[in-house]
Amino acid sequence: MSRKPLPERILENWPAKVLSFMAAVLLFAFNQLNRLEERPMAVPLRLVGSEDLAPSSPYPRTVRIVLKGEANSIFAIQEGDLEAVLDLSAFKAEGVYRVPVVVEKRGSAFGIDPLEIRVDPSEVAIALEQRITRSVPVVPSFRGFLDPGFELASSELIPPTAEIEGPASLVRKASDVTTEFIELSGRSEDFNAVVRLQQRDPLLAFTGPGTVEFRAKIQKALAYRSFEGLSIQVEGLGPGLSLSGDLPPGTLRVSGSRSDLSFPLPPAGVLYVDLSLIDEPGVYTVPVGVRLPPGIRPEDWTPGAVTLAVVRSTEESR
Known about the structure:
Helices cover 14% and strands 49% of the residues.
């Protein structure tokens, strides 16, 4: 019995042989895939866009990716070597677009085979609007209380405004920005602090450093007291002269720290008139002065001036 030539033997039943070979390849690949492991990760989503357009609708700040490959390879990948990118640079007009999420590899993520990367979500719907900038006032935010007996006398923010940028509709609605909390607890002296600005809307950003300097002046807390029926003291009246009649009683309102205002009545002579410039009898209108101890400030008093008659002492005695 003669044997068939080798080419004939190879080509004999070739469809069945090809199918068998392909089945073996598929079985091998399936077996390899079953040996692969998965590793889920969350990575930041970075926007690449034009300078003229800005996102005006919320979008995910992170995406979930799943790496599939050999365990030793995928677990050696550093999180910083994968980045999800939403490329908006191709869009030139306002509108709503669906944009695919692209995962960029670098560093330890390069050269790994096999490596399958699945992204969730695989694409993002995003609205784009004209980008504008605008200056708005900065408002300080406080937390806590000053030491007992002290109050915030004045404060200043440098600079007093901040420039924000973002989609036109949101920028136009913004009336101000606030600082992060400025701690007042335990303070009883002037202080300065650098504080960050709060980013209340993630679609808006600050064009500057995003910080301001807060300067505060602290003083003792002021209390107020009022007194009535105070005698007005006459000072400086020259010899041989005297007043005709009595001066009306006065009222006084003062401010100061609670400890400085703890006295029951003001000292004598707190209201006075200075007549040292009068050297002749007559009718004069002179201002009423106020003399107070250190730390106490006059807020208001009446009368502010009095009209009085000056006579010679001998005339009054007749």
